[in-house]
Amino acid sequence: MGAIELFDKARFNGYNALALYNSYAKAYRELKDYDNEIAILDEAIERMRSEHGNNETRIIEFNEHRTKALSLKCK
Fold it and tell me: What gap in Å lies between CA 23 and CA 68, rounded to an integer?
């Protein structure tokens, strides 16, 4: 079973730690699957806002990661 399948399974079962989203995004980046990388980062940002006390530092980091993915997608 690949990393993304394991991340999918963890997410499906309710695990939503910030580290999961970070690893998820990195796995998509390695595959150059920028659309899914952006989608998982969007989900991470939304969950942070609603479930993790609006951790502004982490939101900024994920937004920067998202901006880089968008840039790579456009190349």
Answer: 16
Whole-structure pTM over 0.90, yes or no?
Answer: no
Q: What is the pLDDT of residues 29-72, one digit of tens each?
A: 999 999 999 999 999 999 888 876 667 888 899 999 999 999 99
Token code pair at residue 29: 């980046």
Q: Give residue 69's identity as a one-letter amino acid code.
A: A
Tell me which DSSP letter residue 48 carries.
H
Other C-beta atoms within 10 Å of 66: how many?
20
Q: What gap in Å lies between CA 5 and CA 3, rounded to an integer?
A: 5
At CB < 8 A and 24+ separation, what contacts does 58-64 make? 58/18, 62/21, 62/25
Candidates 58, 34, 35, 36; CA nearest to 46 is 58
Q: Which domains does the chain have, with CATH numbers?
A: 3-74 (1.25.40)
